[in-house]
Amino acid sequence: MEDTTFFYSSVTLLFLIFVFKLWFLPTTRRRKNLPPSPRPSLPVIGHLHLLKHPMHRTFHDLAKKYGPIFSLRFGSRLVVVVSSASAAEGCFTKNDIVFANRPKLLMSKYFGYNYTTLAQAPYGDHWRNLRRFTAIEVFSSNRLNMFLSIR
């Protein structure tokens, strides 16, 4: 008798935890100041099921429905789509440093030597020094001419 009581109470507790997460988790996500997004997004693939060929027409249809700035989920990544010229100009002139950074992926941490390679480094002094070094030393015309026989 006590085994069934323990079983039913644990199942009830798990069900209540699941309902609590399902009920209150989406409200915490809505508190973020994000652009509008089409609903629903699927758990693993996000909004990838909405994308059809040609993609620019799909984005145009979504922009007509949700406005010139809207957000999509591509898998687990949040993507903001900007389809008006004035908004894109604002993104690339006023907020260019924010949009120049790359996402910090776990793979980049381990394979990119803790975000220190040119392809994985966040925008800043280290990235500018790496870019300057590659432009002057690695991709200079003198260095490229040295490897002409190999190429």
Automatic annotation (TrEMBL):
Could you tell me what this protein is called? Cytochrome P450
One of its Pfam families is: p450
Note whether rRNA processing occurs among the keywords: no
Instruction: Spell out the subcellular localization from the entry.
Output: Membrane
Record-linked InterPro entries: Cyt_P450, Cyt_P450_E_grp-I, Cyt_P450_sf, Plant_Cytochrome_P450_Monoox
| Keywords in alphabetical order | Heme, Iron, Membrane, Metal-binding, Monooxygenase, Oxidoreductase, Transmembrane, Transmembrane helix
Organism annotation: Acer yangbiense
As for membrane topology, the entry says:
Single-pass membrane protein
Sequence similarity: Belongs to the cytochrome P450 family.
